[in-house]
Amino acid sequence: MTLPLLLLDVDGPLNPYAAKRHRRPHGYGTHRVKPDCWVARFPQRPAERVRPLRIWINPDHGPELLALRYELVWATTWMDEANTFIGPLLGLPVLPYIHWPELHQQDPDGLHWKTRNLVAWAAGRPFVWVDDELGPQDAEWIAAHHPAPALTLHVDPEIGLGESDFTALREWAEAVA
Ligand SMILES: [Mg+2]
């Protein structure tokens, strides 16, 4: 039996970037990293003068994700750099990732810029999409255009993935099995 896909965003669900700046959320570690996707945000600055990005990662999330009955997939602007910088902090193996041909582009129907590419990538397989930016319009569009069960799971970027999210993921996987 093929498992449903778990399409995972990094900033928001795994790195609660919107939490209060000087109060690292409980259970999280602080890391400073310099992926190309971060350096590219400062095109006017030489790479060596770009300061590293501070991220918060909760190492418990790795084993919790691996215990789920899903095939894990990165669905993040970090793309393959999630395997270099995020996966090892969580103890995750190298995962497949969605390659976005374009980032942050405007959508004619007001969808999130990831939505259409993500549905095309899933190619008819059941999936859950975990992201801090998706909205009800994305859920509606996915329901109308994806031929298999799909769930959009919105995560608050001040909080990150929590126990209720893991419960929802477990329950959904059971329901579609
Ligand atoms: Mg995000």
Notable traits:
four-stranded parallel beta sheet, two-stranded antiparallel ribbon, 29% helix, 177 residues, binds magnesium ion, alpha/beta, globular, Rossmann fold, 16% strand
Short recap of the structure:
The protein has helices at residues 36-39, 61-66, 81-85, 87-90, 115-122, 136-145, 163-176; strands at 5-8, 29-33, 53-57, 71-74, 127-131, 150-154.
Describe this entry's structure for a reader.
Strands 4-1-5-6 form a four-stranded parallel β-sheet, with helices on both faces. Helices cover 29% and strands 16% of the residues. The protein has a single domain, classed as Rossmann fold, CATH 3.40.50. It has helices spanning 36-39, 61-66, 81-85, 87-90, 115-122, 136-145, 163-176; strands at 5-8, 29-33, 53-57, 71-74, 127-131, 150-154. The relative contact order is 0.22. The protein has seven helices and six strands. With 177 residues, it is an alpha/beta fold. Strand 5, helix 6 (136-145) and strand 6 form a beta-alpha-beta unit. Magnesium ion (MG) binds at residues 9, 11-12, 131-133.
